[in-house]
UniProtKB/TrEMBL annotation:
Keyword vocabulary terms for this entry: Membrane, Transmembrane, Transmembrane helix
InterPro entries from the UniProt entry: SpoIIM, SpoIIM-like
Record-annotated membrane-spanning stretches: 62-84, 91-114, 120-141, 162-186
Organism encoding this protein: Thermobrachium celere DSM 8682
Name listed for the protein in its UniProt record: Stage II sporulation protein M (SpoIIM)
Length: 196
């Protein structure tokens, strides 16, 4: 049931992101296209600092895991976990919708190369981490309502922390692809991807 609600909020975020992209006015779309063209032009003519990209992705992932871990320590954080999922879904939905709608086949190619592969790893990791956090937060709520203390509470938190650490390591694999593989492919295709 918890996984269902996590997926539901992520899916709502995807949908809202897609609708927001479609609702953008022409000037906003044009500004984003100009930004993306500049990005493709820059990456095609300059060396990409893959290490810096990896560090940024690494920081983003560790921030996500730490936030999820902190939120699960209290049942008050449970709704915020859902909001985090909503936001992550929104960003992905907006990106996918905009690229397909505004860039056509070039956008689809960009998604296949630069968005989909790492998100095949990121999205399940986000869902599993969020579901575990919500489940743990709700178990704290139940203990408080029932006024019962389970001796294994600390053990559960340790197990949760270890699982989140493993999830972070899995996400790091996606970060490696994002930092060291994507820029190389995009650099070779940058001339084609520029929207005329």
């Amino acid at each position: 049931m918890v996984v269902f609600f996590v997926i539901l909020f992520f899916a709502i975020g995807l949908s809202v992101g897609a609708f927001t992209s479609k609702a953008l006015d022409t000037d906003s779309k044009q500004n984003i296209l100009i930004f993306m063209n500049n990005f493709f032009h820059t990456i095609g003519n300059e060396n990409v600092e893959s290490k810096a990209v990896f560090i940024r992705a690494f920081k983003n992932n560790i921030q996500f895991i730490i936030i999820i871990w902190l939120l699960c320590l209290t049942y008050i954080g449970v709704p915020i976990v859902f909001l985090v999922d909503l936001f992550r879904g929104f960003i992905l939905g907006f990106t996918i919708s905009f690229c397909i709608q505004s860039m056509g086949l070039k956008g689809l190619l960009f998604l296949i190369i630069a968005v989909v592969p790492q998100n095949i790893i990121y999205v399940p990791c986000i869902i599993v981490a969020s579901a575990l956090a919500v489940d743990y937060g709700l178990s704290i709520f139940k203990r408080n309502v029932n006024k019962v203390y389970y001796h294994k509470n600390n053990t559960n938190l340790i197990n949760l922390s270890l699982i989140l650490a493993i999830i972070f390591l899995i996400m790091t694999v996606a970060s490696i692809y994002e930092a060291f593989v994507v820029p190389t492919i995009i650099k070779k295709l940058s001339g084609f991807l520029i929207i005329q």
